[in-house]
Queue: 2 jobs
Job 1
Amino acid sequence: MPVHRPGSVRPRHRTLAGLLLAALSLALPFAAPASAATHPPRGSAHMGMGVLAHDGRHGTPAPTAATQTEGVDVSGYQGNVDWSTLWSSGVKWAYTKATEGTYYTNPYFAQQYNGSYNVGMIRGAYHFATPDTTSGATQANYFVDHGGGWSKDGKTLPGTLDIEWNPYGAECYGKSASAMVGWISDFLSTYKARTGRDAVIYTATSWWTDCTGNYAGFASADPLWIARYASDVGTLPAGWSYQTMWQYTSSGPTVGDHDKFNGALDRVQALANG
């Protein structure tokens, strides 16, 4: 029979402790990377991030007789942009990410926003919405105060609300359809009160259907920027009979996500002028 000496550990206890330590050593290294891979760092979101993840397609627009004007949208991910090359390739309008939530401003905003303007493009700014962090009014004010304003200079487009899949958690940011509609309405009404313009709504039909219940009430005032990486725009969200803009790819050419404005350049100028 084994003798238990003072200060020693019984063999049975030592075995259990070893098993617990082994289990912890196996579990802990894998837990953090899995979470990090699922949720990117706050501030890293951009237009089309959720579209690519959920639709998984790249667009090549089908030939059409309708006149369309090429555009681009960029964020901090692209860094300093070669605007002269984009202009020479036929890009005539651009949107730059200005803000996200109330915690992020694009560090490359000045180069992107002013650079596009300086080569002759009609430009605007967009805000990536995070409805789970602060109210719509709070985020609209933050956006206007950090580059999202508007001026009637013929070269500045109204601000865009980028409302799409949540890259940091639940698809609809933990909100019911009615609560999401209320949040969006709060943002839009505040933006208009601050700037005198109706904001553009950027979204994807599948997200809009899931998270707003396919609400049709904004279509009479707010232009639609639809995201769909395919040969055509597909079915639009309820209320809109046509899109003003269409993001058709996230893979360039040159840099950024590329877009078609539904009309000739004078229609882009008309939107800028209000």
Note: DSSP finds eight helices and nine strands in the chain.
Job 2
Amino acid sequence: MKSLTDTTTLHNGVKMPWFGLGVFKVQEGEEVVSSVKAAIKNGYRSIDTAAVYQNEEGVGQAIKEADVPREELFITTKVWNADQGYETTLQAFETSLSKLGLDYLDLYLIHWPVKGKYNDTWKALEKLYKDGKVRAIGVSNFQVHHLEDLLSHAEIKPMVNQVEYHPHLTQEELQAFCKKEGIQLEAWSPLKQGELLNEPTIVKIAKQHKKSPAQIILRWDLQNEVVTIPKSIKENRIIENASIFDFELSAMEMNEISSLNKNERIGPDPDNFNF
């Protein structure tokens, strides 16, 4: 991983950037348009949104205005819980595609494992994939038992599992399972919404490398072979977050950071989420 354009190869051969921009809680309109354009201008090629973020139109506008060939970009969105089920997922996909103003998606994810629905939702994703409307399909917030259930019904294995992942929630069992199954793990909320930026161990390592605590955490993600999509609306922070390809954490530093694990979430627990 030497640059922002470096990719991981998903199990179906599609190349996905290791690093991208997340737009959770970024306001529709000028805020999302300017942050996505700033990211693309500064070398980002992966943008992650979701139907429930209500900013797909702004992401689409930014893509259009950015003037980068579509095939160079990697665009992800997600089907929301209320739309899960076979037919409703197919409709939700078309709505998202239309809002984004795109002909196809690079990655489409099931946002949460809604019990009794996600297997039907997955069948819809398999259809979209077979029809060539999306280059890769995956899930988000799936625990090992959700994945085991899905795999027992699925025709096509998920290519990606996007989950909350950071030094306070290292998800080692889940990562080992995904690695065994050839499913790429991806981190949302990699900085724990800023809570980890004052963690003494991370601050100490940051000083040693003359980097910011955020850069240390994001580098730790990549060296753990986890795709990461930090969110920011400020151009200087968008640039800073991505300036992590000119140094490497030692094995000792990686272990120090991993040992901060508390199995502590900032977001909902997928097993106790009010779907």
Note: The chain has one domain: 7-194+226-231.
